[in-house]
Amino acid sequence: MAAPRAFRRLPLLGLPLLGFIAACTAPPPEAYTALGTSRAAESRPAGTDSRGETCISQDGRSVALDLPLAATTEAYCGGWTQPAARIFALRGPVDVATLDRIATGGVWRSWLDQRLICAAPQATRLGDGTPARLLQCTRRQGGWAHVAMVTQGAEGPVLADGIPTAMPVMERVARGMAPGGAVVRSAALELETVRLAARAFGAGDVRDFERAMQLGQEQNLVENYVGAESAYRAALAIQERVLGGNNPDTVGPLMHLALNLSNQQRHREAEALFTRSEALAPQASDPTVPARLAHYRGLHALNQGRYAEAGVLLERAETLYRGFVPASLLRGGTSVDPFGTTAAISPIAQTAIVGLAEARRGRATVLARSGAPAAARALVAEARGLLQRVDYDRAAVGGRSLRTEAAALRAGQDPAGAGDLLTRAAARFGQASPGERAEARTLFLLGQSRAAAGQTVPALDAFRAGAEILRLRRIALESDQVLDYLEALARQAQARPAEAAALAREMFGAAQLAQRGQTQRFLAQAAARLATGGGDARVTAAVRRMQDLDQELRELFAQRDSLGAVGAEALAELDTRIAARQEARAEAESEVAAAAPAYRQLLLSAASAADVAGVLGEKEGLVQILLGPRFGYALALRADGGVLARRVALTEAEATALVGRVRAGIDQGAASFDMAAAQALHVALLAPLAAALEGADRLVVVPDGPLLSIPFGLLLTGPAEPADLRGAPWLIRQFAIVHATSPQALVTIRRGAPTSAAPNPYIGFGDFEPPSAAQLARSFPADRCAEDARLASGLGRLPGTRAEVEAAARFLGTRSTLFGASFTAAALRNADLGSHRVVHLATHALLPGELSCVTEPAIVVSAPRGAADANAALLRASEVLTLRLDADLVILSACNTAGPATGVAGAAGGAGEALSGLARSFFFAGARGLLVTHWPVADQAAAFTVAYMMQRQQIGGDSATALRESQLVLLNEAGVNLPAEFAHPFYWAGFAMIGDGRLAQPVRRVAGGGAAIGG
């Protein structure tokens, strides 16, 4: 982290082009519990709760209640770090009138009402006959069942509240029973009903839910929206399992999830979840839900550039939040809750305060972008002041406020002041989450600002400091910010020609720091799969250790932030502990990489130009493309290590339109093909690199965004006539083409074992049985995934794939094939795939760009006989990770694996990005190359392509060249020995090679064939 720390002493110049990202931050977890106490006190056994979970108790903090306090006890059950119950023993009268008065009014009941929705007290008796008043409640935050009780104790009334499963512990403590003693069942029907209902969930469920919500908040604060998405999905799943799918109290994680999808620009997905939230919000237990829904919808509109709509929604949110904020805070004072605290007054008020401040900050962004910078700065100041009054101006929240204010300053033509604020913001993020995405992003914003002001050298200082964080933590930023880094490097190269070669190599590495949301999501899912035991045991243990150390570091940083102005010695001691944990974390990641070298394919890892050049052939060139909203860059690399970088005028939106035109002539079965669009893509992306690619006969392409959805072989290097497709100058005539998921992935594959050591030549699977309509309906609920069910139901049987697989098997002299109902995920896992050099899967693929309820790419197989739903018919990418392959080639044919750019959020290249994730899974599992189809190729053309490739490799041809030759045969023989329509790219261009592409080992044919494994 040395570079970022040193950077903060640089001159304060420049101003960023700030893109607003934020979700309303929630109070810390302790603010949602009764007192926010810690577990530092000595603990004692407290027996078990009604689910048999072990509980402990400890003394709690002294508070002011309705009568003098004799003792406070907190009970912790099932490993939950928050109290499952709190019991207050008071001194005073214990008559029935006193119990009724405390249960219906007063300080304690007022405090309950801030956090819970409670029914009227019910008169009952405990198991030993002691009178009691029972309140059955629901927590406003989360909607969990809760219970409160007033009964008689040794010195006076005893007040208790907690989750229902903690009732036995409450009774023991209230009546002074021994921890191991049995609690006599309460005679009251009400208590028995509570206990019976309580068995549906326990402390562990609430613990897991709150932990997931906390992780979501932490990930959101450091702007890891993919991580936040995963956490909120987990929280939602827990709630839906316990409370039911349409319970109004599931709206909390649902809204958080929606906003984090919106922050990833997955707007259509987010809109669907917001629509569900609107139906649930009116009945939610948390009264601030309508305010938060307006707030988050406002941010959603802001993410889409709909400023007028965003302003209206955020103003409505402010009005609604204001109704829950104590009047003293709005007047500039402070507020004290019944328990004497100011920071955590009550969960509802705390949520409203933070929400009001963040809604104001969001509206400030609207004003800054709408030409009212002075008003924007005033709103930011109001928001910051409000947070400071409740002691909640956390480092990360403060950093966001400073960035918003910097945007206002830039709009007001004050770049120097904006630069100062951005540097302060980077320091704030460095305190809250050092070395994370939020700090890096702020440094890049500062770099953008300085570059815009013409300060190239200071801009590069900022960019490089942020890039160092990204490389160390293997995280990524949006393409537009990285493109400004490339632009600054190009400007510096023009100013200093002697440094141009080195700067071009730096550009090559920098371009890899951009990563799109779907790729980030897949990588997070893959890492989570490894961490939960999906892969090699050594990898699993190392990943878990790495994640544990990440959590320890977060806690240590939080401790450091809370120390404030303490002595230098205490800070030094804590910094020493942090440094030790950081070193241990780095060692853990090295253990993962050592146990599974392919692990780095699952991470953002920028390979140097020298590393990539070292794995390129003499006549091989690599082209890396990065597209953004304003411009792009294309970079070419050859084996000598030289890099040629060219600015591309083509924007992501323009590329999306061109790719759409190219695909339209294929996806819609059009007789014509858009030659102009195919040529325009070549002119924009590859023609500027012609000098660097001269003499090459093989091209490795690392595409971006919408470009992931087309095979580059169908680009046109010059003008052509639609009537003469056969004679057109297709790019495939110039190069054998390989597509790579990233430069680092290419390096990892080619530095691994050069060829397969598997003894068997081939195994093939095809002609799956689609799930039934009933199975699809259960996997894709109509209220959330009706469109997905409709699309999935269209994935019909592919009988032609049986002939394709059988032809390949016959050619290679084997009968290792499996079809129909036998083609299941379990069969794949049990088929000893690692003993085959070629693995052929002829089936559909489902991609997140096509189905919004499929959160990771998957291939479709047959569901087991009698399966309740269609879940087992999807072999997800994270499950592919666990396969054990030693394959020179995996063939995924007839699967439309890189379909049109119809991402769930309308984002370009959504399906293509998912293809990248699917490919990474197969590479991790042990494949060296992956042959995919970009659309369902005609049966005859598909069978010929696969068989011809096998034949060419049989005589020593490499895989990329073999694919090129098979495609040229189809193209050149069209109208001669094949139907004339075969000259259309639909027939010959659908297959694409991903991965190595150089494998030239002959496929060893097995004499006499092999044993059949299916039928």
TrEMBL record:
Pfam families: CHAT. It comes from the Bacteria. The keyword Membrane does not apply. This is CHAT domain-containing protein. Residues 1-25 form the signal peptide. Residues 677-996 form the CHAT domain. Residues 539-591 form a coiled coil. InterPro entries: CHAT_dom.
